[in-house]
């Protein structure tokens, strides 16, 4: 009797497993390029991190995707999305998935297997709770977790899991910026003249600071108590109060923006519009179709070779 290989697998896991299969079949033995996109964490070794081609690299970025243990499908999609991007020239962008303590029995097992397979997950010592200090936990943990990495990262970013970064434009944007006291992202308000007097801050879906700023957060214990509330405004207040992140770089709204969902009757605005060719990041990718449209626009499917083995309408 013929039976589906997935017939005993809980329904919700099927998309995740399919993506994992695609991921593996795209590149079953391609450890080198896999490593360059997802270099080892090196958190539990005393040896300094050694990376292929490290000598040509003059910019190192840690991109932390804050997500939840149970978001298996999103992680599988993001791994594919980052793996199939052209790598940045002269830079490494290490993508890590970040969450708090794993509470469920099933998640502990499945996440452990992901770590063995991909080594791209950081589990912080905190409790999952929206807007309740996870940003502080992340920025204060990374300088310690990567303290033995030489050379250290130049920038560390906190990004949501419904955002797609294009790592080459991101690296090119960061390369020209100050390596100290820097704070880069999508600045709000994006039409300053419409909201005079507002505090400026980088919106919470994704921002980067230079490593010295993360080190300062890590050393400034009193920020922990101040971590509640709208985290993106809170974060910018920390920096202002501490006199940090004075090199503030708001990216052009044409290069970082929300996905425009025509189907929902959304109108274009400074923070929301159609895809542009020089995009650094698109936010608000909530479902598979929105992801697919973004990935297609940015040529993620360009590497598909003609074959009698499949036929797809792209
Ligand atoms: C996590 O934090 C708690 C409370 O601060 C502490 O008691 C515990 O030892 C920490 N666990 C780990 C694994 O670091
Ligand atoms: C966005 O692009 C789509 C498809 O190219 C087009 O039909 C639509 O009019 C565009 N929307 C805006 C607001 O420019
Ligand atoms: C995708 O590839 C096409 C064909 O090579 C090219 O014209 C287009 O500019 C590329 N799009 C982006 C966003 O790079």
TrEMBL record:
Its EC number is 2.4.1.-. Pfam families: Galactosyl_T. InterPro entries: Glyco_trans_31 (IPR002659). The chain crosses the membrane at residues 6-26. One of its GO terms (molecular function) is hexosyltransferase activity. Keywords: Glycosyltransferase, Golgi apparatus, Manganese, Membrane, Signal-anchor, Transferase, Transmembrane, Transmembrane helix. Pathway: Protein modification; protein glycosylation. It comes from the Eukaryota. The keyword Cytoplasm does not apply. Belongs to the glycosyltransferase 31 family. This is Hexosyltransferase.
